[in-house]
Amino acid sequence: MTRTNNSAKVKKIVLTGLFSALIFVFTAYIHVPTGAGYTHAGDGLIYLSASLLPMPYAIASAVIGGALADGLSGFPIWIPATVVIKALTAMFFSNKSDRIVTKRNLAAIIPSMVLCIAGYSMYEAFAITKSFSAAALTAALAQTPAYLVQIAASSALYIAAGLALDKTGFKKLI
Fold first, then answer.
1. Which range is the signal sequence, renumbered to this chain (predicted)?
2. CA distance 141 to 121
């Protein structure tokens, strides 16, 4: 492996660690408690990470940051769902363009929203209650407004940060 390849790989690893830390902070410390957990804007940094980094690195930052947030903020029961949901969320976005905020990445917010609502609601209805019932699913779906706020806040963070970074030509630097 050449020095240039090593340098590029180190940059990706460093950015993965940085995004893991940012996702953790924006999830665990900048949040609003809700009925079953909390609402946060950390997903916006998952979107940003996935728009900048190659897929394996983006998935790693999403999973590490999200799982650490759940585990260290008192909600370890959510870690299995978070690992799957955040990994899949990262996969909706693409780093293939020379810009962060693209039509494709903006459209990726929609399946991310559906996955967040359906994934966490199903996990709550099946895994946390330990028995599936219509009542458990209905109770879990009652969290939908909080998830919608989470996606709206995350989307706003992603778009604002992405547009600012696009103006600076940040993607060309990594």
1. none
2. 6
CATH code for residues 3-173: 1.10.1760.20
Rg of the chain over all Cα atoms, to the nearest angstrom: 16
pLDDT in tens, 92-146: 999 999 999 999 999 999 999 999 999 999 999 988 787 788 888 898 899 899 9
Contacts for 154-157 with beta carbons within 8 Å, 24 or more apart? 154/40, 154/41, 154/42, 154/43, 154/44, 154/45, 154/46, 154/47, 155/44, 155/47, 155/109, 156/41, 156/44, 157/26, 157/41, 157/44, 157/45, 157/48
- Provide the b/e sequence for 60-70 (b: ≥16 CB within 10 Å): bbbbbbbbbbb
Task: Determine contact, residues 49/19, Cβ cutoff 8 Å.
Answer: yes
Residue 2 in tokens: 């050449």
What one-character DSSP code corresponds to residue 40?
E
